[in-house]
Structure formats: C-alpha cells, structure tokens
Inverse folding.
C-alpha cells in the first residue's frame, strides 16, 4: 500500500477497529510496505497517540464537521455501532440513520469504496425481540443501494481480551453451574479479533472483493455448550450445566425490558445467540484465510494466558 492511499474509519476505538489499526501498523513495519494515511473519526481523539493516525473529533450523525477530511480518501471503513442493551429507537438512530449519514457523506466527499462491518445477527431468521440485529439488517440494505463500491462483512462472535462478549461468557462459564439458555445447542464459530482484521485488510487491498457479502468466522464450529465447557474446564477442571428455556426466556425478557431494561443483566435480543446459529456461510474471503486462523483452543490460550 502506497503513501497516497487515504483511508477513513469510524469505530476505530472498538475491538475490531483497534485490531485493524494494529494490522495496518504491522504493514508499516514490514519491509517494502507502507501504512496508508489513516484518519479516524472519534469523540475521544486522545485515544490515538500514534503519529501515523490522524484523529478527527466528531460524530457520525454530524458529517458537516468532518466532511472536508474525506477529500482524497480511497476507502471508508464503517465500524461504529451501538451494541449491548439499548432501546430500539437508539439502535435505529445510531446503526441505521448513522450509516445513512456516512454513506451520504461518502457520496458528497467523492469516496467510492465503502466497507460496512455488520454482524452475523443480521442473518438470524427473525429479529422481533432483537432491535440490534434488525438495525444491522436495515443498515445493510442502505449500503447495497448506496451506489458506492461496497462490501459487507458479518463477523460471527469476535473474541478479544477487550471484548465485552468474552468477559460475559467467561463470567458465565466460571459459575459452578452454568445456565444454558436453549440447551446450549446453538452452533457458534468464534473468530479472534486479529484474524477478523486480516479479512478487513484484504478488502482494503483487493478491489475484486467489492460488491460482496462475507460472513467471517474462525475455522472451528461448535455448540455453545461445548464452548462454555472448554472455558469452564480450563478454569474449574469440570463442567456442569443447567439447561434453561431459550425462546421462553426471550419472550419473558421482551415484556420485562419494556419497563426494566437498565436493571436486566441482558436483553431479550442478546439471548438470540443462544437460540440461533452464529456461523459463517461459505464465501471467498472466509476460504482465503481459514487455514491461518486460530482455532478455539488457540483463541482460549490467548484469552486466558493471564488468568
């Protein structure tokens, strides 16, 4: 990648964004390769002390403040999103309208290539109690009809020591008796954040990947029960489970969260991953790196190396 390349990113302070920035910085350290000029949009510019990264203060919903920074940009990587527990209207505002805002900014600023980091939750068969997944699905539709050269990447379950999902699952697996919503039979395909960054970097380098939708997961598929069991055996030496209803718990939480969402440990929608498979459908980008990605044991070796 040459010095003339300019990339603009949102969501660069997140787990995936940090992994991608580190991947690009690694290219700079490699002989004969240079890091492109990277500009990140953030409300916390002090989080980017690296001299090779330009941080611009702003919000995705207020493009007039940062639109001039798009001049000369070759790619726009949109990773910013609202996750976790939130109201449907907030997911709509950030994940749908925010995506609409940055797409319009790209068209006005002359950026032609747009990478949208979505979620495997967009592929779930229904989103009635999962406004996050629904918001990602709606945002994908905006990307497809944007008129830009786009790609959509849907990570499965992203693992990193900084990932909230990892700390939640580790805490769950550390219990003497692990609750398994839906019986733990849903299949997952965990991917390390560094391996996901490898796939995102590939899109930056390869325009033939444009106009494509790519589910990305690690090389190993297993059930939630098997995954939590591996964590529990590493931490406690044994694994004991308490099967619980899946869809029944979702229906109950859906009603309770109308009045008590901030008090709940999780939302109804967050239980969808215990009910529906979170696995990657075969695709060219997934196959390109499957042989070099960390399997589940290697991921856990990394995540649990410090206890």
């Amino acid at each position: 990648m040459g010095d003339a390349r300019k990339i603009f990113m949102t969501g660069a302070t997140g787990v995936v964004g940090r992994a991608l920035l580190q991947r690009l910085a690694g290219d700079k350290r490699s002989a004969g390769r240079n890091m492109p000029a990277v500009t990140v949009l953030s409300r916390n510019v002090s989080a980017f002390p690296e001299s090779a990264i330009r941080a611009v203060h702003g919000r995705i919903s207020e493009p007039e403040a940062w639109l001039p920074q798009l001049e000369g940009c070759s790619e726009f990587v949109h990773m910013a999103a609202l996750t976790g527990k939130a109201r449907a209207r907030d997911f709509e505002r950030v994940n749908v309208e925010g995506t609409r805002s940055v797409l319009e900014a790209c068209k006005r600023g002359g950026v032609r290539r747009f990478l949208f980091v979505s979620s495997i939750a967009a592929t779930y068969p229904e989103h009635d109690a999962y406004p996050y997944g629904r918001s990602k699905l709606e945002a994908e539709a905006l990307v497809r009809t944007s008129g830009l050269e786009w790609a959509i990447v849907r990570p499965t379950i992203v693992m990193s020591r900084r990932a909230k999902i990892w700390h939640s699952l580790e805490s769950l697996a550390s219990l003497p008796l692990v609750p398994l919503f839906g019986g733990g039979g849903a299949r997952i395909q965990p991917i390390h954040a560094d391996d996901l960054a490898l796939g995102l970097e590939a899109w930056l380098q390869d325009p033939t990947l444009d106009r494509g939708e790519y589910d990305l997961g690690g090389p190993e598929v297993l059930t939630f029960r098997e995954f939590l069991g591996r964590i529990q055996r590493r931490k406690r030496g044994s694994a004991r489970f308490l099967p619980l209803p899946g869809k029944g718990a979702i229906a109950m939480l859906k009603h309770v969260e109308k009045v008590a969402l901030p008090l709940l440990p999780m939302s109804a929608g967050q239980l969808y991953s215990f009910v529906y498979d979170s696995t990657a459908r075969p695709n060219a980008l997934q196959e390109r790196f499957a042989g070099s990605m960390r399997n589940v044991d290697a991921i856990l070796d990394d995540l649990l190396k410090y206890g």
About this structure: The chain has one domain: 6-303. Residues 61 and 101 are 6 Å apart (CA to CA). The mean pLDDT is 93.
